[in-house]
Every structure is written in C-alpha cells, then in structure tokens.
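Quick one: DHA2 family efflux MFS transporter permease subunit from Pseudonocardia zijingensis, structure tokens please.
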Amino acid sequence: MSATVEAAPRRAVVRWLVFATVVLAMLMHAIDQTSVATALSAMQTDLGASLAWIGWTITVYSVGQILVLPFAGALGERFGSRRIYLLAVTSFTTMSVLCGLSSGTVELIVGRFLQGLSGGVLLPVATAIVSAEFGKDRDRAIALFSTAFPIGAILGPLAGGLILTFASWREIFFVNVPVGIVLVCLGRALIRETPRTAVGRADLVGIGWLTALLLSGMVAITRIGSFAEGWTGPASVALAASVSLVAGWFLLRHLHRHPAPIIPPRLLTGQRLGLMNLMNVLFGAAVLGFSALLPHYAQIRYGMAPISAGGLLTVRAVFMIILSAVAVSLLRRLGHRPLLLTGMAAMTVSLVLIALPPLHSGPELWLSLGAGVMGLGMGLAAPSSANAGMHLVPEQAAAVSGLRVMFRQVGAIVAISVVTAASSAAADPAAANAVAFLALAVVMGGAVALGARIPNQRGRW
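--- reply ---
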C-alpha cells in the first residue's frame, strides 16, 4: 500500500509540536503506571476487596502490555502509526473513565487490563511517528523521547499521593480524560500518517496460550489464601494451576512449530540467553515488585501519608537517573558485568534495609535511604543489563530488548501476586510485607549469582 505521508520535511516548530504531543501521551501512560501503586490501600478500603485481588490492578496492567508489545509495531506498519496512535490514546482515555467509575474489583481489573493493552501499543507507534517526523535527526529525537519514562517515574508517585491527599483514588484515572481529549485533538491536527507496509500475520495462537498461562497462574497464586474456605479453595487453586501447566506446555510446543512465533525459541535458551532471561525474571520480581509494593508497605506498617509514601518512589527515580548517566559513561571502559553486579548487589542491600525496622531515624528517612540505594543500584544495573543481553546477538538487538521487558514483567507479575496473596492471608499484613522484602532480597541474590556467569564485554559491540 502506498504511503500517505509526503516526504518533504516540515517546519521545526511543527516537528517539535508533534514531538511534544507523543511525549505527553507517553507521560500519561508512565504516570498512570506508577501512580496507581500509591492507591492500593485506598482502593482496598473503598471496594472492600482483599489485597490479593486489588494487586491485580498492577499485575493485569503488565499482562496487557506483555501481550500487545510483540505485534504493536506491526499494527502501525499495516494500518498506519497515526491511526493506531489515535486509537490507542482514545482507548486508554475511555478505559480510564471505566476504571474511575468502577463499582467493584472485577470492573476495575478489566479496565486496567484494557488500559495495559492500550498503553503497550503507544510506545512502538509513538516511536515510529517521531522517527518519521525527524528523518536524519531521529536518533537524537528518540533519545530525548525516551526520557518520558524516567520523568514519569518521578512524577507518577507524587501525582498519585497528591491526588489521594485531596481527592479519592478515582481521580487518578479521571485526570487522564482531559489530557486524552487534548492529545486526540492535537494528534488529528498535527500528526501525519506514516508509510504502510505489508507485514506477516501476528502469532495470535501463541498470544492466546501466553494469555492463558499468565492469567491462570495469577489466579492460582491469588487463590492460595482461600484454603480456609473449605474444599472449594484448594480445588480452585488446583484447577488454575492445571490450566497454567497445560497452557505452558502447549505454548512451548507452539513456539517450536510456528514459523514466526511470538517468542523465537533460539532467543529463549541459545547463546547464554537462557541465563539472561532467567536473570531478567528474578530482576523484575525484585525491582518491579519493590516499586509496586513499597508505597502500600509504607502506609500499612508506618502509617505514612500517601504523598510521603509515593515520594519514596520519586527518591528512587532521581537516584536512578543520576547513576544511569554515570553507568553509560563507564560501560565501554569497564564492560557491563562489573556495573551489573555492583548495581544488583546495591539493590539487594536496599531490599534488606526496607525490611528492617528504622535504625536511629524515623521511618520516612529510613525508607528514603532504602529507596535511594535501590535507585543507585538500578542506575548502574539498568544500562548494563540491556547491553549484557543485546551483545550476545547484536543482529537481533530489538527482539532481545523486547524479551528483556517481557521477562521482567513476568517476574513482577509473579512477585506481586505472591506477596499480595501472602499479605491477604496473614494475620499481620505489615509483618508479612517485611518478610516479603527479605524474600525479594534473596531473589535478587540469585540474580547476582546468575549475572556473575555472564561474559563481560568492553568497548563497542
């Protein structure tokens, strides 16, 4: 199909208006992703649900992103990035309304899942729009565009805490509505359609089995706390676990038989990539689990206000950004392994600090220290872990990058599901959360052990 975009470049002011529009969309997505973590306690109280099910508002959002990321770029190539971008923003805004109006946990979970699907589409199509708009300067524009997520990590927890201080958790979602309307209007007026190309069919069967595996696994973990309900509790766990095992077996068989599977089998285990994938699962469980659970933990154990609890994630994000710049400057000189191991060791220390009671300080200062150490570790480990996987198969760097995101999200889903289920079943949820952070420290220790086996790489690759 022929392209609908004219090749001539436009004035700089128009290009930067387009850039600002898509960056604002990514900020909306990134802020929503982190601000909801501050509202778990408020949603649990208002909806009268257990923490295990309220935790799905975070995990099911990640599931939506995992499922759509493998083919979101292909949707833009086939139907045009502008059209898919406008559809994604409209859907994200509509689902925000649904989440805000939810009268029960099921409605909220469904809305968050659909929000995750919409948010997962935004990143690849927004990147394509920026790339097409800036032409030869696309590298700098995309590098600048990528700062939306660190900024969102800083603003999201603060925005969530601020909204909860003066309003309810529902306004966290409603605030997206005017922003989404403005983005749709700006997008229709400014963004040009990108060229369309013929692409292969998406692996819908593989996506189906992956969906069944993730959701049934989450149900099995969530229902573990229902054993006191009689025979129905263990039966529901056994049924969900059986579905998960069957779905996992069919998914693996499908990956080895499909000509273009959702996950290429050689990228699962070949060339030490199996080691990297397992490390990313553990990394995601510890780090993303920490990010989702810390505000709730600060509120239930120490009675911190939502804005103070959310501010802990802002402290982490600030230190992460600072150390990331240092790590990038040291990568070629030291290689990725020393930075990776140092960073993950710091994150292990952070998790232990968070679990321990405050020493010679108040809880705000103590938890801020733990969050700051986590940020330092993430700043060192994030750039180095990205290079550690991609240098193994540089010709498929994009695919490896996508798998890194997917496996980290899978680790986060498992960790958050387990911790929230355990906390719901515990007589003392605050103490159970403290034990959970120690368990996450052990998980991160396992990631350090795996990282030590990854070959180092200095200089260019």
